[in-house]
Amino acid sequence: MARVKLEIDGRRVSADAGETILDAARSVGISIPTLCHDRQLEPFASCYLCVVKVKGARNLLPACSTRVAHGMVVETNGLEVRQSRKAALELLLSDHYADCVGPCQLACPAGIDIQGYIALAAIGKYREAIALVKEHNPLPSVCGRVCTRPCEVKGCRRTLLDEAVGIDYIKRYIADLDLAGASPWRAEPAPVTGKRIAVVGAGPAGLSAAYYLALRGHAVAIFEAQPEPGGMLRYGIPEYRLPKQVLDLEIAQILALGATLHPNQALGRDFTIASLKDEGFDAIFLGIGAWRSSLMRVENEESPGVVAGIDFLRDVGLGRPMALQGTVAVVGGGNTAIDCARTALRLGASTVKLLYRRTRAEMPANDSEIQDAIEEGVQIEYLVAPTRVVPGADLRLRALECQRMELGAPDASGRRSPRPVRGSEHEVPCDLVIAAIGQSATIADLLGHVPGLLPAGESLGLTRWQTVEVDPKTLETTVEGVFSGGDVVTGAATAIEAIAAGRKAAYGIDTYVREGRARPEPEPFLSRKDVFAKITIEDLRSRESKPRRVMPLVPVEERVKGFVEVELGYTGDDLHEEAARCLECGCVALFDCDLRKYATEYGVEVSRFLGEARQHERDLSHPLIELDRNKCILCGRCVRMCSDVVGVSVFGFVNRGFGTIVAPALGGSLLDAGCISCGLCIGTCPTGAIAERLTLEKPGPWKTDRTASVCSYCSVGCRLSFESLGDTLVSATRREDDHVVFGTHCWQGRFGFHHLGGPGRLTAGQVRENGAAVQAGVDEAIAAAADRLTRALATCRPDEIAVFVSPRMTNEEAYLAQKLARGILGTHQVASFGALVNQAYFAPEAIASATYQDLAAADALVVAGARLAEERFTLHLAAARAARGGASIVWIGPEPDRTADLADVCLQCRPGAEPLVAAGIAAAALRRAGEDPVSHPDLGMVASLGPSQWLEWTGVKAEAIERAAERVRAASRRVFVFDADYRGERRTGDARAYAAAARALGCALLPAREGANAQGLLDVGAHPAWLPGYRPRHGGAAGDLERLWGVPLVALSSPAPDLAWQLADRRIKVALAFGIDPLGASGIPDALRAGLAAADLLIAGDVFPTATTRAAHVVLPMSSSVETSGTMTNAERRVQRLRRVIPPPSGLETWQVLCALGRALGGRGFDHASPDEIFEEIRRAAPIYRQVTVDAEGPEGLWDAGIFPLPPVPAVSSASAPSRPVPTSGLDATSARFAAWFEKRVPRPALTSLRAENDDGGV
Amino acid sequence: MTRLTVGLGTCGIAAGAEETFRSLEAKAAGRPGLQVVRTGCIGMCYQEPLVEVRTRDGARHLYGRVTPDRLDRVLDEHVGQGRPVAEWLVWTDRGGGSDQAFLARQHRIVLRNCGTIDPESIDEYLAAGGYEALERVLAGIEPDALIATITESGLRGRGGAGFSTGVKWRYARQAPGERKFIVCNADEGDPGAFMDRSVLESDPHSVLEGMILAGYAVGADHGYIYVRAEYPKAIERLTIAIRQAEERGLLGGSILGSRHSFHVTLKEGAGAFVCGEETALIASIEGRRGMPRVRPPFPAVKGLWGAPTSINNVETLANIPWIVLNGARAFAALGTEKSKGTKVFAMAGRIRHGGLVEVPMGITIREIVHDICGGIRDGRKFKAVQMGGPSGGCISSELEATLIDYESITRTGAIMGSGGLVVMDDTTCMVDVARFFLEFTQRESCGKCTFCRLGTKRMLEILTRITEGDGKESDIPLLEELAERVRQSSLCGLGQTAPNPVLTTLKYFRSEYEAHIVNRKCPAHHCQKLLTYTITDDCSGCMLCLKACPAHAISGERKKVHVIDQALCTVCGECYKVCNLGAVHRE
Fold it and tell me: ipTM of this model?
């Protein structure tokens, strides 16, 4: 294609003439946002996010659909462009009735991902849960006790239904569990920066700031005036609510990150801000709190017998002995007042009266605290305010004179303000008055009394409330390098607000010391339902009411005796029940929603275009796929993916104008519309409108890790991205940029991995002793296996030993297995059990000469002996791609399927006649080319058939064959696809017949296979006939291997002529079976089964317990395909990289087990450190792999089919050949489990054809 | 033989012409020498039912509002005694009749047979020179030469965009492809427009002949007529015409013995406005949702079923036979430098003579409104014309000297469009006009593009709140911003032009918007929620308004001045209507 030169953002770019601006920009790393474009789909141009400015054009142009032209000058990110994109996003979001995160998270001052940690706790991932909490709060155990819980009170939507979820108690549970563990979770600090930060005040704000600063690699010094850290947490909150031990433990966690604590160091007394600066601190955080009690402003307030609330609590906190008696009057209605009252009770007061000037409804203290206080005996009087302290004799108090109040009009805070009732003065007799009516900051005093507190020339700005003035986004004060937060900024507030401030300041300080300027933390865009409408009980009508778990408390009579902690904490049961109550208000696509990503990037203001917004019900009718139309932006990607790529058209646009929606065609559910559950719609949806219904108890969402790997389901080897969270596999998704299968996958690949992490895995070894199977550690099992093998080897011949491998094993694993067999066990008898069973159909010479790319780009395609739509779905999609490109498709088979629907010529034939029909087409083609097919070695017989005979044998009319031949001949890029493990009627030599027909037709060949690594097993030598790389057993190749392995191989005796016979005759004494279950699988000839069971020593390795492992003498646990790294070779001969996604439950990957076994047997060359090392050895052993590229990403590429002639086909076994091949996918426990998992959940419509009958020349 | 024709277009039928026709047939049954013929619409829709009397001498007399009871006099006096009934005559070919001016200033090419021939008779079409053009072309004009003629004539697409028809054909002809298609776009969707319907109902063969010629020029042997299902009469007459043409060998294989074959399929559209857009129309014919797609490739290269396709509007096609017969020059002689020939307009609104007119390009708006259509009704003040339907715009009466040609109209901010022309007077609220058209486009948006689907919705919400008195000062800039973005960032014409009504009213009548927003007043006294009614001292206390008020907001005693309780008043305007003394004041 012609190249054109253009300019994008000032850069010269060369592109193909047919390319779009979007493609051209991407190719040079300029990203242009788009929501409606998917590189798998044709340009659609509907979201108008990708607009760019093209010089000379009147309008902005959509880059996704505008083709490049020579000399074009494109600007992708100018102001005009950005404004247009912003407006597009604002419009989309003006009709987006959806919550990004739950209201709980929005209500939390610290913005903790509450839904996330609850979901983690629900699935037992406590460590991950606490890690998530600590991203925003380093004091979760403390907060779990003292927090005022705005998340529950203001946030939790469940309050509309019944009661708030016990969010705080759940947090306390996981935090306590973590602290009580042997090694509490600890974040990994960033590398040391060399910057020094001083934190003044070790209260919640200072501790939080210190924690996040230390995490960023800074050296933090904390200065605290009191003897111990904690601030108000320690000196303001009584022990019975927050045991000091808990506080100590949590502070210890913070200090363990490296912050140093300097107690008894008071600002203004022991140091100043100026002195800190002089000492070289790069920045200072000021978090000294608000420690002055507000005055009651009544007569005689100075009398002895009147104390301030926080002074009272602090003295108790400092351990100063204090015995109370008589009546104590506490004035105030906040948490401090309640704390004072309950503390007074515990210190021996006979009566505690709490006097509050409003009513219970206006009381700022937590409801549960008030309740507890009342239960403990505190008497609360409402609507009273003190007017005078009445001193008594002997410096003692007589009473507190009070006045009755009544409530007037609401004030600025919305609370009704109290007004005194004239003449209602009365005396409340008491011995002590505790005034807990508020606190204020003392910073102004310090500034006034301590000269030189600040560096010369600086002044600290204060607000009119005498608190420190800060930039609300960075918490910078007016003094250079000094930041501040907590009560000293806000006035007396809550712990969680102080913690949030500490974290925010840490962000500002971090940017300040690194970049010289404090930056606020970027705020991600968050869509909120309540912008559009108030959420009501109506919105929750589908939810069941379920009461909240009650927090267990110490009995009242026990409580008041001392300071034992009142709340006992949730049990694991409580936690589970409470977690289940969470309504999951936030969006499951939170972390990968493109709409949100761009909305953040472009700083959208949702309010700009607010108007009518539609509300829809979620559609949960599909067991795997959730539809939430509220989040749909009508990009049409699902519609197009389903119709253009998948060819099913489940989705459609319905209605017009603003009322347009995307819905399953013809209404109803996805399944009614014929959904085949491939899940490709989920992958293409740019928002959370189409989401996977995860099988986990709670779907998160969480930030998951993504690992690019390949699917191990079948030989197509689709590329998948696996998402994991720690050791849990969360989902498998498409790889959009994949060029091998064009970013597609099938239902097995998308949803079928669930069994891998499922219950029932083999996590340890097993050794049979005296007939009884005994659990054993992996090492123990390996040692036992080695021991027994050594003994057995002493008495048996090489042809009595066999090693069976599975095509679900990696190249590295299979290579090690055959190396073990040949190099240590001294036998060539290593084989895939599936190939052994289906020897009659075994056709290793039929290797691919076409790639999937060739298939998709073909202009003639012959599909014979394959059920692509059902079994090799992504190849079916590639064939559909070819059909869209105008390819002529000739389909041959007895039962038309969806692939047949694509065909130009559909040749419905008698079962088993497929190879004959293929040969017939080849013969017809030769005849058309003027050649005589009768003399052709492969086609002669077919060519000489008479017309009636032909019709009788195949059921296909000759004219149809002619038409097919004409189509194929007319094309230039021809590909022939068949399935080497076709499940229809088969005969010996079918594969060879297909290969011959393809050759005669001039088609490149693509044989699909069942086993994911069926090709690789043969490539690396897991076959008795060949050494790795299809090299002969004798001669130079053996010598090469001897040198490579350092073991003699030339003397190795020949294998038995037919391993299947050998097994059927019970002549195998020692068998090793990896990843297969011949004893449990169906369809295995009884003789083979019995032969294996009769072995003297059976060593089985597997992922799950199976009939075979149950019968084995030694069982070794294996890793599944997501638990190990290595390579697999797909049906194209493409060597692909498999990456470990999660750790194997046994701790060892299969290659490690095999290496260990090799070493235990005394073998040399089994000390590989990684799969990469093994692959390097494979490349040396098998020269066909030498041209596979190995770079930082690992091995990748087609192996070289040109080096060797096709391997000689081994003699066909006559050992009980079945009339149909045994489905090899059923040979291993993994696929059996998958099938069971899938079948149980998804009623999937048959993928049979839409074609009613044969379109020509039918049976 | 005296020929009596009755206009049986949809307009005529709606006015009761079928009754007139039946009655006339019955009365004529007993009289020899009388021929009663149905015909289509002659354009004077305001005078329907119309009956034309063509006497033996060829003289034509057109009678208006001929209800069956008027027939006897016409038959007796005119047909019987040769004395035309002067007071009912609206037009004669001798320069008489009350509405002579309506037809006198017109130049009828597209409408040449409309209202004169029987649309259900191919013979009448043939007698009027029909299919002569086809015969002449097939007899020896090469496709390229035909294309050259059409190009030379200067004919531009009458669907609205005004692209050169000859050039469009040439693209389709030159595009590689085994099969090609002609599509006649008869999905006339603009509110108030009925030109195409009239042509199809009155002269379907001229469209068919145009299509066959287009097929010959482009190299297509198949044509589709995409017609709205809401036009049953047009569909009926097209079906008859297609059958007749096939019977005469004018459609089908080897037309008139030539090598040219052409088949026509009628495809009924389900009434989506957007299906008038070429690519959406193609999708709809193909059985998919009518949704525009990215261009290029243009339909001329990749259209219906992926084949090169020329899509032409009804009116465009009806011009073709005339151009072939009369020559490119005769056509090009009409009109202005860049806009040749004539244009048919559907006249509606506050005009005295509403109906269908065909005028040469280059005539002024004033001439159409005042000279042809008789000016504004009820003696009110001419305020504006709206041209081009929802895609068009309002042109202030101050610009009434504007020439009717593509470029001049576009310069005003409106567009030529397909021919809808709505005349407005001083009782029309321009904000409400914009709201009306936007409501239409936002409802008819296919929903694909963000700005079209949501932008027009938000614009409509803003306009609605302005007309309801809830407008904000920031609304005008917001409207302008949205209008510009919708115009810029929409895939097809529907979205790109949807803001035009808003932009043009803002351009010419901004003060009206401001009055709504700032003063909470509608200067045209149209927007209900902005009106207040009060009763002046002129009230005689007749109690009419008091009884009429559905909200019981008016109190008062007989012979005493009444009072409206503003708190109860629902501003329905009933009092204003019933007051005989003009004592109800509205502002």
Answer: 0.93
